[in-house]
Amino acid sequence: MKFSVFQVSRKGGRLKNEDRMGYCYTRESGLFVLADGMGGHPEGEVAAQMALQTIAALYQRDARPLLKDVKAFLTSAVMAAHQQIMRYAGNKGMLDTPRTTVVAAVVQGNAATWIHCGDSRLYVIRDGALLTRTRDHSHAERPRPGGGNDVVNRNLLLTCLGSPTTPLFDISAPLQLQRGDRIMLCSDGLWSVLDENLIVRTLSSGKPVSDAAPDLAEMALRNGGTHSDNVTLIALEWETPDAAGQTRGVSTDSISDGVFASTIQAGMPSDSELDDLDEDAIERSIAEINEAIKRSSAARKS
Prior knowledge:
This protein is an alpha+beta fold and 302 residues long. It has helices at residues 44-62, 70-91, 188-191, 196-203, 209-224, 271-276, 279-301, and strands at 2-10, 19-25, 29-37, 100-108, 111-117, 121-126, 129-133, 170-171, 175-176, 182-186, 231-238, 250-251, 261-262.
């Protein structure tokens, strides 16, 4: 694999940064994760960090050097992260639980597959245009009967990790990547204050992602003003061609089997904690989600 990647996170006008992001990769697979701890609930930064660490730890356990089933991995890893947050809150006897959004993408076999819960987004840019992006789990982006456009609080989320109710999420079909495709994961501190056309133009401006990503962060901070939200993003370009005067991208060809590179902070759950994750409970949660999706689809058709 060969790609260029750049990540940036800024506190903005908030007292602390509750966003977390990072990536890790093997010779044949890469994982990119971003989580946005939710204000209004305690220890959002803890929930975001636990989500990253749990997903990354499971990835490093299972990617040898490929994930056998990317969709199954993403589903179980996100549910495991939710369970870890709930376990943390239970052990501390917290009256309210830490909560976070999450968006994660796996790139392997020349394809990208992603999952998201909440309103942290993933964008795919191809040939200067928006190819696709995730749709938020929020009232603002929830389909309405008859296409109504009633006024809602766009910040009100329908689901997240750490909520007492089982989280809902969307997972994509694998997208075959083409040389030069750009993928961005970001928190709402970026997309909520920047026009989508501006995001697309900046990501596809011809600059390397190491320039385009900080440009986007700075624009978001300026537009957000003194009360700007945390601004966090990871941007990558697939099969970046070598160019004079530019920093070389990541090439994984020289990585040996069983070796990982990672920007995700240490302090991941121990092997014993990972082994203690209740697989049956995760499977039950996934079954509940699938059943809820079926009921929702049936209701829309009736």
